[in-house]
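R.M. (postdoc): so does anyone remember the format we settled on? I'll just put the structure tokens first.
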């Protein structure tokens, strides 16, 4: 018979749970206290006949004592522990970390899959496997689940939140989630399982991955320098996606804790401050076994559950491979409403109130879309490089599969980019694109700054740029003429178009590999990883100015990234430019001589410098949230043209206009850009330039703003 934990530690914990001392157990067994002490310390083990008596004393069956794969139920049953209100009267109206992200399954997919990649076990060389399971419960299945999570104990707390919902944003979300469950008789569960990952190792309270996820906020304990996360905010997306603020967890550990590895279970509830039966509660609550070492055995800690319990909680894992299962209770996808086509509004296809944020089929499709878009590179292998990730999505209703499990295929979701990356891994890239299907490669430099604000360059990291033709209109290939940038964990961090492309350029896709993604042997790969990781915001969707970048390097360190972007754009333009056709000089010269063009006498240019004027402006919002402008400048006649500085500002009703930084300024015609200043070609009457703002300098979301662009003489003062 398979056994779990060593007998001594297991028995010691059971005595604590049952509230018994070693002396009391010895009396019940009619043995000496020394005999029980020898079992606890591991100096001896009880005979088989004594095992039966121990099971009776602990109120369990003899099989549990023999196998020791779970705790007994004696004394301290699993329950909810709600954190008491603060003694100083302070109130938290929700977990602020959850407000960093929208209730969006695509954001959830990005954050959870990134976390799984960061915790992949690398020793065996296998990818981390992540599975997303949507499960809609109704009828008896729903009732059975609510009984398993002790819903009747939770309901008074939800009722208290609902009563105060009008004054609390979190309260309104929770109230809507509870009402949907009762009015429509359903509950949507979204489970995220990963395998070949570290699992939530460590103590319940001390430093470790378990405490960082379950007990704490804003703590990030990642396994390596190429990890995607760094803020400790990503886990908040789990609770943000739950309309009930409830997540259950089952972890299989890669490192034993208390001598055990399988079915370490706990739940965490995130609610705002509330008052129930005259008692104030601070916010969070935990679902677990009361800790006998806490005052009054009140605080709930994780427990080692049996197979029947994890099945009732919908937390059964498919194997004993290390990793963690997160069950989001009451999952909803508010952001899916934004994906409705405009025709729905124009034709009346969707009436107000008919939108369903809990449609598991729509959520299934959005998960597949996001995973293919953001993690295609992590799922791609070639040559000696193996994929880092395998992902699938499935959907059930009351245990019956309604959407078959779909394995996300990077070559189907991102065919051109996948082809480019495989060619790089297999060493089949070329210097220039001359035939269909080829992949061109080019090294581009990233000059890394010295830390601590010191002037100078630490070294030059050579990133790898890959360019190939786009796959026509194949579904999932995303916007054409874009560069997908990624680093060590191969998650797409930045997606951006390439400005000022030559006319007639064939549609293409480009991939930029930076840091360890360019190869662990690339010069300064680890330093580039550290630098770019610090340049990412909590969403990990761009590189730019951040507080960490300023503190660890300098306020101007982000300019190294802007320089990298300029190098990449120049390289792409060169690689995709069509070769110029040769023309007959003789024929052109003959035509020129045969033409007579009447010209008016030139007007006398005014003396002194002339000031160019902004004439027309075209602005759009890019995929990365940046303002993208194309501006034309009218230039009066004159011998000397004053250099001008483009200034981007946000239009506000009162006060000074906030100034935005430029990520890139590009001269199109009639001018050139030098250190942010436009210098105009002598004699031109019109000029054109393009600009792209630095999203990290935006104080608010771009779609909520209006842009003002001015030209100022000199240095823009």
């Amino acid at each position: 018979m398979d056994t779990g934990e060593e007998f001594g530690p297991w028995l010691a914990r059971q005595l604590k749970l049952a509230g018994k001392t070693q002396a009391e157990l010895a009396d019940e067994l009619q043995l000496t206290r020394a005999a029980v002490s020898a079992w606890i310390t591991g100096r001896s083990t009880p005979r088989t006949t004594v095992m039966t008596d121990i099971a009776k004393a602990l109120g369990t069956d003899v099989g549990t004592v023999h196998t020791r794969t779970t705790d007994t139920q004696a004394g301290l049953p699993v329950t909810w522990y709600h954190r008491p209100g603060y003694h100083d009267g302070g109130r938290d109206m929700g977990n602020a970390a959850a407000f960093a992200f929208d209730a969006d399954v695509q954001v959830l997919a990005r954050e959870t899959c990134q976390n799984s990649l960061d915790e992949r076990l690398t020793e065996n060389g296998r990818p981390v496997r992540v599975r997303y399971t949507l499960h809609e419960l109704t009828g008896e299945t729903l009732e059975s689940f609510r009984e398993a999570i002790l819903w009747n104990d939770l309901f008074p707390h939800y009722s208290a939140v609902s009563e105060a919902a009008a004054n609390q944003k979190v309260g309104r979300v929770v109230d809507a989630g509870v009402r949907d469950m009762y009015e429509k008789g359903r509950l949507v569960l979204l489970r995220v399982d990963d395998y070949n990952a570290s699992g939530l190792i460590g103590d319940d309270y001390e430093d470790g991955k378990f405490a960082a996820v379950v007990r704490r906020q804003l703590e990030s304990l990642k396994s390596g320098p190429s990890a995607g996360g760094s803020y400790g905010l990503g886990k908040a997306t789990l609770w943000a996606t739950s309309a009930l603020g409830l997540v259950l967890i089952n972890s299989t550990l890669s490192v034993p804790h208390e001598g055990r590895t399988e079915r370490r279970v706990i739940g965490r509830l995130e609610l705002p401050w509330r008052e129930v039966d005259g008692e104030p509660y601070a916010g969070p609550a935990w679902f677990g076994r009361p800790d006998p070492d806490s005052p009054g055995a009140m605080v709930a800690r994780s427990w080692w559950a049996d197979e029947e319990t994890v099945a009732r909680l919908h937390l059964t894992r498919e194997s004993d491979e290390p990793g963690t299962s997160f069950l989001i209770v009451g999952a909803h996808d508010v952001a899916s409403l934004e994906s409705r086509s405009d025709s729905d509004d124009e034709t009346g296809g969707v009436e107000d109130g008919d939108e369903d944020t809990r449609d598991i089929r729509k959520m299934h499709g959005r998960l597949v879309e996001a995973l293919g878009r953001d993690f295609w590179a992590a799922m791609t292998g070639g040559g000696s490089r193996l994929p880092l990730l395998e992902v699938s999505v499935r959907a059930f209703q009351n245990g019956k599969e309604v959407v078959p499990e779909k394995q996300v295929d990077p070559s189907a979701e991102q065919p051109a980019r996948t082809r480019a990356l495989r060619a790089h891994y297999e060493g089949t890239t070329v210097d220039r694109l001359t035939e269909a299907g080829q992949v061109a490669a080019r090294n581009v430099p990233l000059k890394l700054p010295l830390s601590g604000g010191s002037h100078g360059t630490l070294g030059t990291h050579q990133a790898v740029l890959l360019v190939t033709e786009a796959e026509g209109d194949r579904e999932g290939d995303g916007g054409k003429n874009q560069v997908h940038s990624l680093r060590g964990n191969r998650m797409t961090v930045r997606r951006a178009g390439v400005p000022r492309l030559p006319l007639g350029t064939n549609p293409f896709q480009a991939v930029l590999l930076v840091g360890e993604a360019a190869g662990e042997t690339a010069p300064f790969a680890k330093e580039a990883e550290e630098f770019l990781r610090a340049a990412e915001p909590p969403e990990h969707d761009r590189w730019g100015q951040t507080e960490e970048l300023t503190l660890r390097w300098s306020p101007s360190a982000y300019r190294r990234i802007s320089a990298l972007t300029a190098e990449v754009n120049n390289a792409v333009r060169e690689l995709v430019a069509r070769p110029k056709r040769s023309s007959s000089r003789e024929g052109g010269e003959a035509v020129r001589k045969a033409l007579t063009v009447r010209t008016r006498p030139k007007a006398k240019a005014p003396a002194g410098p002339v000031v160019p004027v902004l004439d027309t402006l075209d602005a759009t919002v890019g995929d990365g949230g940046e303002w993208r402008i194309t501006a034309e400048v009218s230039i009066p006649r004159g011998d000397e043209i004053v250099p001008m500085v483009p200034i981007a500002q946000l239009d506000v009703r009162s006060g000074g206009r906030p100034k935005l930084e430029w990520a890139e300024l590009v001269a199109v015609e009639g001018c050139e850009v030098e250190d942010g200043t436009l210098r105009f070609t002598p004699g031109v009457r019109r000029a054109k330039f393009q600009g792209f703002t630095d999203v990290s300098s935006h104080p608010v979301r771009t779609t909520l703003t209006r842009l003002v662009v001015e030209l100022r003489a000199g240095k823009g003062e």
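R.M.: ...and that's the designed sequence above, right after the tokens. Also worth knowing: The chain has 20 helices and 28 strands. The first helix runs from residue 7 to 18.
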